[in-house]
């Protein structure tokens, strides 16, 4: 009988992937949460603290024709931008185009 190894499951939301990478990199997490039916919320976490959250939220609301808010979470996460609807790709593209974060520091989660 051959020996079978137990495969350990990895947490997909964990910061360190265990591949020997730099664990001090700040990733921007863009997530979607399903509300009810076709309704959804998009959250953007771990944005740099030196940016103007109100201006970015105002741009998102005007450009994507949605409502949104700024949530003040605990000290580890910081401020979180919350938008109504699924705007993961558009928000990520905006953050990369405006050079707020590098492309390899943006992680999109969901579906």
Automatic annotation (TrEMBL):
<dbReference type="InterPro" id="IPR036877">
    <property type="entry name" value="SUI1_dom_sf"/>
</dbReference>
<dbReference type="GO" id="GO:0003743">
    <property type="term" value="F:translation initiation factor activity"/>
</dbReference>
<dbReference type="InterPro" id="IPR001950">
    <property type="entry name" value="SUI1"/>
</dbReference>
<keyword id="KW-0396">Initiation factor</keyword>
<dbReference type="InterPro" id="IPR005874">
    <property type="entry name" value="SUI1_euk"/>
</dbReference>
<comment type="similarity">
    <text>Belongs to the SUI1 family.</text>
</comment>
<feature type="region of interest" description="Disordered">
    <location>
        <begin position="1"/>
        <end position="21"/>
    </location>
</feature>
<keyword id="KW-0648">Protein biosynthesis</keyword>
<feature type="domain" description="SUI1">
    <location>
        <begin position="28"/>
        <end position="99"/>
    </location>
</feature>
<dbReference type="Pfam" id="PF01253">
    <property type="entry name" value="SUI1"/>
</dbReference>
<protein>
    <submittedName>
        <fullName>Eukaryotic translation initiation factor 1</fullName>
    </submittedName>
</protein>
């Amino acid at each position: 009988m051959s020996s079978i190894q137990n495969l350990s499951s990895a947490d997909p939301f964990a910061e360190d992937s265990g591949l020997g990478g730099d664990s001090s990199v700040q990733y921007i997490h863009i997530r979607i949460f399903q509300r009810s039916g076709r309704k959804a919320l998009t959250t953007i976490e771990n944005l740099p603290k030196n940016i103007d959250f109100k201006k970015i939220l105002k741009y998102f609301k005007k450009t994507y024709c949605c409502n949104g808010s700024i949530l003040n979470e605990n000290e580890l996460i910081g401020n979180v931008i919350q938008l109504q609807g699924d705007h993961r790709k558009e928000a990520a593209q905006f953050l990369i185009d405006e050079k707020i974060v590098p492309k390899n520091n943006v992680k999109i989660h969901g579906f």
